[in-house]
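Duplicate of #3305? Posting structure anyway:
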């Protein structure tokens, strides 16, 4: 651990989540219980604390939260889970990814030797353990979101609770801004990341109980976009124990909080996206669609040298040489890892760090992996990357196609805001890691809302009307052309 060791309460907190989840589903509506538990687990449970049972992969805050909440959904909202048809539709991408990972491990049975460094080959057990882990921390959060949120009212509830959870979390953020990031150490007995990583701009970058400052910054940004979506749809934000707050001032407060987080990426996202959502005349999905396409195309752009890395480094150098050097270093490592990934491009190198670059003589690990995309591409290949990232951004394409068919303008603002949240969290996986299950959970929420029966029927009706209108138009054109005999 990064300073200190986990205390007794850190393990007790994981166990206490079970009765808390049970009581939440017992006394609250399933939608409300699901949202508070999915968000609260990441915001308050300890990082890097695991219980390692035999055969199964380690159980941590993400897996225990997803599993307990899913069981609660099965008990209290079985009809919604059944209606979602698990493992069908876009969910089938997870099935394909799991099959691909079996092939990955079968193709990587050969050990890799780099001087004194020996990396073992993989077996079917590695495929089993990896697929179980992905089912708990990727697929279950996506399925929970897709099954439990099926209407505009559900989406409104989700966005309101997302904002309310950050309002309740803000005092801890300000405490760490002033006193240094030590909440996790004081409560759970250890630092969840290196303390040097929290020093920024002559002050501190808060992280509270999350994986790090970058993870918390993206959560703050997501809540800021949610507040703006509620503001454009003329909704208020009910905060337990406080009042119903106006979304406009709350979004301004969240924007300030993004700046105080001292995360360059989150600040850039906020500067570009939040004013656009606040001032555009109509709800649109163009920016979200562009980001979704960028996420899917990024490996190809990097492999073919079409992504403007030199330009980005030059622009960054105008603001900060230190930041420009950091960006260049990331791109340099990505280039090395891409060369390694190209050796087994379709199904990757699997686990045990086999996708990383090592010195052939000393066996020293020469890789620095920042972006989640390069880790997934190297370990799972093009097949795994396409399946998981396709599942992640697919709801954005659906939202872009169906936005106009949503009857109420206020509901369109909610969907547009949710689409932007999904796009931003997916885009952040290019420079940063997958810190928690939020990106897939948010994506599942958007997918479930778009699959809602009322909106699906309305979209089908409008599609049929457009088809009929085009058919009538073609008939009019046909009868309007004079015949040769008439012209004579």
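Output from current build:
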């Amino acid at each position: 651990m990064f300073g200190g060791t986990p205390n007794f309460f850190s393990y007790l907190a994981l166990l206490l989540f079970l009765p808390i989840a049970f009581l939440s589903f017992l006394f609250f509506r399933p939608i409300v219980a699901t949202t508070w538990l999915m968000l609260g687990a990441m915001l308050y449970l300890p990082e890097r604390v695991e219980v390692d049972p035999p055969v199964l992969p380690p159980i941590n805050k993400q897996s225990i939260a997803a599993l307990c909440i899913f069981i609660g959904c099965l008990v209290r909202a079985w009809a919604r889970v059944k209606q979602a048809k698990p493992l069908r539709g876009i969910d089938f991408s997870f099935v394909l990814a799991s099959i691909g990972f079996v092939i990955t491990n079968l193709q990587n049975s050969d050990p890799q030797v780099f001087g004194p460094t020996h990396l073992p080959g993989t077996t079917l057990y590695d495929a089993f353990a990896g697929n179980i882990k992905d089912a708990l921390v990727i697929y279950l959060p996506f399925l929970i979101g897709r099954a439990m949120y099926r209407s505009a009212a559900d989406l409104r509830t989700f966005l309101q609770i997302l904002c309310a959870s950050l309002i309740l979390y803000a005092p801890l953020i300000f405490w760490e801004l002033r006193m240094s990031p030590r909440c996790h150490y004081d409560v759970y007995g250890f630092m969840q990341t290196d303390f040097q990583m929290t020093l920024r701009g002559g002050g501190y970058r808060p992280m509270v109980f999350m994986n790090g400052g970058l993870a918390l910054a993206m959560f703050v940004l997501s809540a800021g976009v949610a507040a703006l979506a509620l503001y454009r749809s003329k909704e208020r934000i009910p905060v337990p124990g406080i009042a119903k707050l106006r979304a406009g001032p709350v979004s301004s407060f969240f924007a300030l909080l993004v700046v105080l987080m001292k995360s360059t990426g989150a600040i850039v996202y906020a500067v570009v996206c939040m004013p656009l959502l606040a001032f555009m005349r109509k709800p649109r999905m163009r920016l979200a669609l562009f980001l979704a396409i960028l996420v899917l195309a990024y490996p190809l752009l990097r492999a073919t040298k079409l992504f403007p890395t030199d330009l980005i480094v030059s622009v960054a150098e105008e603001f900060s040489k230190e930041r420009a050097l950091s960006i260049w270093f990331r791109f340099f490592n990505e280039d090395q890892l891409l060369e390694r990934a190209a050796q087994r491009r379709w199904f990757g190198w699997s686990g045990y760090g086999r996708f990383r670059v090592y010195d052939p003589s000393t066996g020293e690990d020469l890789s620095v992996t920042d972006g989640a995309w390069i880790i997934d591409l190297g370990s799972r290949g093009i097949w795994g990357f396409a399946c998981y990232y396709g599942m992640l951004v697919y709801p954005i394409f659906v939202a872009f196609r169906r936005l106009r068919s949503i009857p109420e303008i206020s509901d369109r603002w909610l969907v547009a805001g949710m689409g932007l949240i999904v796009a931003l969290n997916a885009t952040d996986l290019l420079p940063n890691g997958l810190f928690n299950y939020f990106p897939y959970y948010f994506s599942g929420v958007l997918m479930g809302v778009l699959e809602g029966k009322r909106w699906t029927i309305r979209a089908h009706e409008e599609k049929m009307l457009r088809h009929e209108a085009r058919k009538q138009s073609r008939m009019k054109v046909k009868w309007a052309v004079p015949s040769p005999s008439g012209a004579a």
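Confirmed duplicate; merging threads. The mean pLDDT is 90. The beta strands are 112-114, 117-119, 199-200, 203-204, 236-238, 244-246.
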